[in-house]
Amino acid sequence: MRYTYFKAFKPLFFIVSALVFTGNVASAQTQAATSAAAPVTGVQTFIDKFFKEYDKQGTARAVIDIFKSNKQMDSTRLTGIIVKIDSMRSVIGKYLGKDLIMQRKASNSLVLYSYLLKHEGQPARMTFMFYKPKNEWEIYRLYFDVDVDGELAESSRVTGKP
């Protein structure tokens, strides 16, 4: 009699076990996706300060201040970055704000943030790459370009050929 009782509940036991297991896996995946999209502590402070200075005090101040964290950057390269950004800013108009395009985390020591910059004349893109060789984050690379619309249009092509 006991054997029959267990035999009747055996399929139910496996179904409940499967539901509990898949629920835990889904929960773990959701937590992993959420933590990957969470801002990296310290990096967001650099970015917020950069954009505040970019808006209020200009490109030179923003670029020089963010690169203070990187001891490898020389003044010639800094000047080149500042000149490139300022020459484009003079064409695309006043800075109006920013939107986060994407955030990528390659590891616990290398992250990338890409922002859409809203200027009066056209959008631009600012991409920050941060590296943490020891205990502190530092700016590793800073990219600025105005080909956001061309790249977006290219990504919408079905075949990838013009």
From TrEMBL:
Keywords associated with the record: Signal
Endpoints of the signal sequence: 1-28
Top-rank lineage group of the source organism: Bacteria
Protein name, as recorded: Nuclear transport factor 2 family protein
Species name: Mucilaginibacter rubeus
